[in-house]
Amino acid sequence: MKYSHYIILLIITLFVVRISCSQNKSYYEPTPKNMKFVKMGSYKNSENQTISVHPFWISNEISNREYREFVDDIQKHPKDTLQYFNYKELVSVPYPNLLEFISVDTLALSKLYTPGSEKYKLYQNYYTNKDFDKFPVVGVSFEGAHFYCIWKTKQELRNLKDTGLTIQDYRLPTKEEWMYVFSLVKNDKKSISNNIDCCKCNKHKSVKISNLFGNVSEWSTQKGNSDNERIIIGNSFYNNQIMPDGKSADISKSFGDTGFRMVRTFLGKQQLDNDNE
Question: Exposed, middle or buried: residue 55 (CB in 10 Å: 0-12, 13-18, 19+)?
Fold first, then answer.
């Protein structure tokens, strides 16, 4: 009997030690595909206030091909439902109900130019033309960009279903996150093209992502002038003036020079400089 007590005590001790070791082990979140790590830091806003930002992952601009995959999946699976939490409330949206929010104005880019001009003709099939697969999607509303991020999260969680792992949600960047990344690259002095470029052009060495100067302006989660408006931030090939506070736009509207990129909150021990090479 006494010997049995020792065995039980040994098992309990080993269990406690194992838990303690696992808790002390540094945790690194796996790098999301095609995203780059941005360290915790701060920047000065337009009012010269210091704004601190927690670490996160950030992508390049979402491309035409990536967005088409999203729309195609929604159209091919009419019985599926997109579920997400909105202020702690679980929301379920049947795929067919998403179509009105995620549709693309396929002529948005060409309409920036004079009808009949060379660029007008060039960009008439911009969204579907395979030559522009790796160019940023435009003509997408905030709602479309928002639902893309939710869908992307669902797709990745489905792939992780049998691993026991989970991830933070993909989402649009806050204004503060976007401005912080911009502050890290603003001295790169990238020239702004008068034409739209592919998503991976004009890479910034400091954070290894592209097109924070020009290309397309981008949706953020920052509330605009009303509850139904959000802030579009950054300049574009069509409007090369820096807008420090962005511009407010209706969440259902889309524009020929506006796209989006994704971020994901980082959880775990902050990485070292060479971890993101």
Answer: middle
